[in-house]
Amino acid sequence: MSELKVLAFDVFGTVVDWYGSIAREAMAAPVGLSAEAAQAFALAWREGYRPAMQRVRSGELGWTRIDDLHRLILEGILPRFGLQNLTEAERAALNLAWHRLDPWPDAPAGLLALRRRFQVCTLSNGNLSLLADLARHGDLRWDLILSAEVFHHYKPDPQTYLGVADVFGLEPSQVMLVAAHKDDLRAAAACGLRTAYIERPLEFGADGVARGLKDLSRSSDLDFHATDFLDLARQLECSP
């Protein structure tokens, strides 16, 4: 790890709790869903994420920011939850819930610990304004905010991972992707980046592991496996 210079972080699920945050927003006025319905709503909104990005990747849609893709998905699921009567203003405000996602408890302190030895940046499919709002909301101290918006490619396109190395003027092997998603990490590894898996057992709720939505097993093809950012900081010897 002596040549490692930059840690690039996936954000949704890795740094911030999208499931719990979206469910909380869905229970509040004016949406007002029950706890059970709000949890289903959060999952349904997230389930549309990859298909929406694929529409951009396939050329069906031109380059589209995640904020706009989130709104397209939202419009599709509102009737399913009896929310078709929300006003335009209420829909726009709800769509910005993705700008207010809470960080996992270890994230702010963990990032500060990791910054003692490395530069830290985002590498998220979220757009720049969304990531900036999350940084302020969660007191996340990034050295640089990078987004798919910068590269006009969504992960797992190679241009995103290689773009980080290019921005910092580094070889891919000097960059490590930190993520709670093994498919993201393996796509980064295929581009020559190092990899660190973060468990995040609650990403899909308390029963996410039992339902097979989260795989917490150790994988020999990934460089590091950590329970959270503070654990990763210990493994990378980021002592005060």
Overall description:
The chain folds into two domains: 6-17 and 101-235, 3-Layer(aba) Sandwich (Rossmann fold), CATH 3.40.50; 18-99, DNA polymerase, domain 1, CATH 1.10.150. The chain is 43% helix and 11% strand. The model has no long low-confidence stretch (mean pLDDT 96). Helix 1 crosses helix 2 (35-47) and helix 6 runs parallel beside helix 11. Strand 4, helix 10 (182-190) and strand 5 (194-198) form a beta-alpha-beta unit. The chain has helices spanning 18-27, 35-47, 49-57, 66-77, 88-95, 107-115, 128-138, 148-151, 158-168, 182-190, 229-235; strands at residues 6-9, 119-124, 144-147, 175-179, 194-198, 224-226. The chain is α/β, with parallel strands linked by helices and 240 residues long. It has a six-stranded parallel sheet with strand order 3-2-1-4-5-6, sandwiched between helices.
Considering the protein shown, what is the CATH homologous superfamily of the largest domain? HAD superfamily/HAD-like
User: What's the rounded overall pLDDT mean?
Assistant: 96
Counting DSSP E segments of at least 2 residues, the number of strands comes to 6
Give the proportion of residues in helices. 40-55%
Strand content: 5-15%
Which secondary-structure class do the elements indicate?
A: alpha/beta
Unreliable segments of 5+ consecutive residues:
none
> What is the subunit organization of this protein?
single chain
CATH class placement of the largest domain: Alpha Beta
**CATH overall fold name of the largest domain:** Rossmann fold
Main sheet: which strands, in order across?
3-2-1-4-5-6
Shape: globular
Give me the CATH architecture of the largest domain, please: 3-Layer(aba) Sandwich
Number of helix segments?
11
Rg over C-alpha atoms, rounded to the nearest angstrom: 18 Å
